[in-house]
Amino acid sequence: MDYELKNDYKTKIIKKLKEANYKLTPQREAIVDVIISKIGSHLTVEEIFDLVKKEKPEIGLATVYRTLVLMHQEELVTRLDLQDGSTRYELTREGENHTHHHLICISCSKVLEFMDDLLEPIEDEIEKEYKFEILDHSLKFYGICHECAKEEEETLRRKLENEKRE
Q1: What is the pLDDT of residue 96?
Q2: Which CATH number is 101's domain given?
Q3: Crossing angle between the packed helical segments 26-37 and 61-73, to the nearest 10 degrees
Q4: Range of the domain at 4
Q5: How far is the first Cα of the chain from the last one, in angstroms, to the nearest whole number?
Q6: Separation between Cα atoms, residue 150 and residue 146, nearest integer Å
Q7: CA torsion through residues 59, 62, 68, 69, sign
Q8: pLDDT at residue 69 in the model
Q9: Same domain for 11 and 80?
C-alpha cells in the first residue's frame, strides 16, 4: 500500500476516534499503524500485540485487546470469527457496501478475500419476501487452498508408490 493511502486511512481513523472523544495515545497510534500496514491480513490480537510490541515494548496485551474492541465499536476494524478459536481483525475499508467475503482453508487456516458481491439478487428477494431490511452480510467458504491440495495430492502419491514397492 502506498504512503499516501496509508496516511489517508490514518487521518480518517484519528478523526473518527477524536469525534468519539477518544484520545490518540502513543499505544493506540502504534496499533493503528500496524493494522494499516497489514491491510488485507486477518490478524489475531496476539499477532497484532507481537507486531506493536516491536515499536512499543511497554505495551500490554490488554491494551491491544481494549483498543481493538474500541475500534470495532467505532467500525474502524472488522472482527472475523473463523471458528478456529481465534478472533481475527482487519481494517474496515471504505467504499465496501458490504463486508467482503472470505475463503478459509481448513488445513492451513489461510484466509483469502474476494470482493464480488454475489448476494445482491438474493438480498433483494429476501427483503421483498420477508419485509426485512438487510444492512450487511458476511459469507465464508471453508475448503482447502491450492497449496494444501497439492501437498495432500503429493502425500497420497508417495503413499501409493510406497505401497507398490512393498
Answers
A1: 55
A2: 3.30.1490.190
A3: 70
A4: 1-94
A5: 54
A6: 6
A7: negative
A8: 95
A9: yes
Residues shown for the chain: 166
Look-up: residue for cell 478456529?
84
Closest Cα partner for 77 from 85, 60, 66? Answer: 66
Q: What is the CATH number of the domain that holds 21?
A: 1.10.10.10
* The model's pTM: 0.72
Q: What are the mean pLDDT values of the chain's consecutive 10-residue runs (166 residues total)?
A: 77 92 93 91 94 95 96 90 81 69 86 78 92 85 93 90 83
Spacing of C-alpha 38 from chain mean position: 10
Q: Given its phi and psi angles, is residue 109 left (phi above 0), alpha (psi -120 to 50 degrees) or beta? A: left
Contacts of 72 (CB under 8 A, 6+ apart): 78, 79, 89
Strands (E), 43-123: 43-44, 77-81, 87-91, 101-105, 111-114
Question: Cα 87 to the chain's mean position, in Å?
Answer: 9
Which grid coordinates belong to 79?
472482527
* Residue 49 burial (10 A CB sphere; 0-12, 13-18, 19+): buried
In the chain, the amino acid numbered 24 is: L
Q: How far apart are CA 26 and CA 3, in angstroms?
A: 20
Do 138 and 56 share a domain, yes or no? no
Asked if residue 116 and residue 64 are part of one domain, the reply reads: no
